[in-house]
Structure to design on (198 residues):
């Protein structure tokens, strides 16, 4: 019998990315959208690692199946590492991607290109039904553009220019982005670990 692997997220954009990255694993992959709704756990961790493990353990326990979850966000050096673990809620609860990007661009309005150093961070966690866990971390360095560019991707993709490139993540194809992104790096490492486990 094929073992089920739950993606512990209700973010449809993230589900789409993870399905692409994890395709071909000998697991039956499902998402929270395929299951009865449950309250989301409070992301009270102080780090990406803590929040990723918290979510993976919560959903694995609740649905009695192995679960992968991640916590990811943007760290901007000039803002002391903000928005960090609050990346999704940077402009307030219930804010949109564009609200977050607008607030970020406003905060950096007076900053020159060299001062706009930033990185995307993704911590991906696996939790099994027996309580065992595994967590990995992926990062990609870059800078924040002066305005939004591109229509692809989601979140801060329209304002993030990865090092060595002249366009934002939102101007790249999914394949180009996955090859270098924080989430792509973290989940490829997690995928390799899962392959040894299955």
């Amino acid at each position: 019998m094929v073992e089920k692997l739950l993606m512990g997220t209700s973010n449809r954009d993230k589900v789409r990315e993870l399905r692409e990255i994890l395709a071909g694993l000998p697991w039956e992959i499902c998402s929270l959208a395929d299951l009865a709704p449950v309250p989301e756990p409070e992301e009270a961790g102080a780090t990406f690692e803590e929040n990723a493990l918290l979510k993976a353990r919560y959903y694995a326990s609740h649905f009695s199946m192995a679960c992968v979850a991640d916590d990811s966000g943007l760290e901007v050096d000039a803002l002391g590492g903000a928005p960090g673990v609050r990346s999704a809620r940077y402009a307030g609860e219930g804010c949109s991607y564009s609200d977050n990007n607008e607030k970020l661009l406003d905060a950096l309005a007076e900053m020159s290109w060299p001062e706009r150093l930033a990185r995307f961070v993704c911590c991906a966690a696996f939790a099994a039904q027996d309580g065992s866990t595994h967590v990995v971390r992926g990062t990609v360095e870059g800078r924040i553009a002066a305005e939004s560019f591109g229509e692809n991707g989601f979140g801060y993709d329209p304002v993030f220019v990865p090092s060595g490139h002249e366009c934002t993540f939102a101007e790249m194809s999914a394949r180009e982005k996955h090859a270098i992104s924080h989430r792509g790096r973290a989940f490829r490492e997690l995928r390799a670990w899962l392959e040894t486990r299955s």
About this structure: Helices lie at 12-22, 48-63, 97-107, 174-180, 182-197.
